[in-house]
Amino acid sequence: MPRIVMKFGGTSVADLDRIRNVANRVKREHDAGNEVAVVVSAMSGTTNQLVKWCTDLDPLHDPREYDAVVATGEQVTIGLLAIALQKLGVPARSWQGWQIPIRTDDAHGKARVDSIDGSALIASMQKGEVPVVAGFQGVAPDGRVTTLGRGGSDLSAVALAAALKADRCDIYTDVDGVYTTDPRIVPRARKLDRISFEEMLELASVGAKVLQTRSVEMALKQRVRVQVVSSFEDKPGTLVVDEDEIVEKLIVSGIAYSADDAKVTLRRVPDRPGVAASLFGPLAEANVNVDMIVQNIGADGTTDMTFTVNRTDLPRAKEVLDAAKGSLGYESLQTDPNVVKISVVGIGMRSHAGVASTMFRALSEKGINIQVISTSEIKVSVLVASEYKELAVRALHTAYGLDGPEPAAKAAEEG
Questions:
Q1: In whole angstroms, what is the distance from residue 179 CA to residue 176 CA?
Q2: DSSP SS3 for 177
Q3: 3-state DSSP: the chain helix, strand, coil percent, rounded to 5?
Q4: C-alpha dihedral over 96, 97, 100, 102, to 10 degrees?
């Protein structure tokens, strides 16, 4: 009997009508004879409100109490969906993260999954029940509730699929697949039939909102077959698969952007061995993730260091760096939250030269100044002023030949 994990995001369960729609989709799979487990997010907007309450009270709030607050959104959704399924005659029962249990470390707010005991859920499914699991939640070694970071319900679903040895993990969302870029910015963006785990991981890590980064890491590691499909339309989605399953490897498969970054610059840092460790060690201890890093060539015994952090981590990063000013000896600290990271991603980069030069030329032609550059084997990222986000994405999408045909609605309107 096929075993399926179905995950529904916040927009898919935004109100009672949409929850009823989800229940009907789950019933269809259950009636087809499949063993089904469902993972759901909080209703659209709920988590944002819960986060805002925490930050309004204290931007440097206790992360354990933050988790206690924001984990409640999913608890509401699982109960409502279980009720909707029972109304349709489908045996269903809600499960919170600690009840399974989904065991995590104690990094509250961005906990990592250590292990999942799927035996209770498997027993439930084998009895014909549908477990409805709260995404985003886990339990720390001390028994306190943890959360897995924004978008963590994706991680819950993929990790659960691995633990249950599911045949596939279907991620239902408000888009009908993975596109070459955000179609709200570029109407001629094209949907991809397939994308490799590696490309999806890079796209997710640099801002694509379709799948959470750590969920793709988990899918890659555990070889969980993932399908991104629409919650609202019966259309083929996008399969996230091994590179070997992709026949036509595009040089660039997608353009992603992240408007969640902030730039930090330390001016005139003493240029001595170990200064980077002294700088980034305290940030790591404070669970502040650092991304793009640039160190200038030293002059007069000092150097400038620039890096990016998540914008929500900026107050904590400033607090850590202010406290370490005496030991680091830097002259001044400058921050800029008005930046955006633009990235081009494609496994075809491994065998093609000139990808970076095409990017730099396209941005130059639009008068867009590049502040920071970083690269990997299949990715080139640049940091630019946030006001150029849409212009940069459109220019790069065209420069790499990713534009599809004009959308039918717009073509008809212009005709």
A1: 9
A2: coil
A3: 40, 25, 35
A4: 180
Tokens standing for 358?
A: 């095409």
Strand partners, 266: 305, 333
User: Do 205 and 215 form a contact (C-beta atoms < 8 A)?
Assistant: no
Q: What secondary structure letter does DSSP report for 296?
A: P
Token pair for 323: 């406290």
Helix (H, G, I), strand (E, B) or coil at 278: helix
pLDDT reading at 404 higher than 90 = no
Distance CA 415, CA 409 (A): 10
**Could you tell me if 148 and 138 are in contact, meaning their C-beta atoms sit under 8 angstroms apart?**
yes
Q: What is the pTM of this model?
A: 0.77
Q: What tens digit of pLDDT does each residue of 147-175 get?
A: 999 889 999 999 999 999 999 999 998 88
Averaged pLDDT of the chain: 91
Helix and strand numbers (H, E) in the chain are 14, 22
Report the C-alpha gap between 61 and 5 in whole angstroms: 34
The SS3 assignment for 199 reads helix
* DSSP single-letter state for residue 312: G
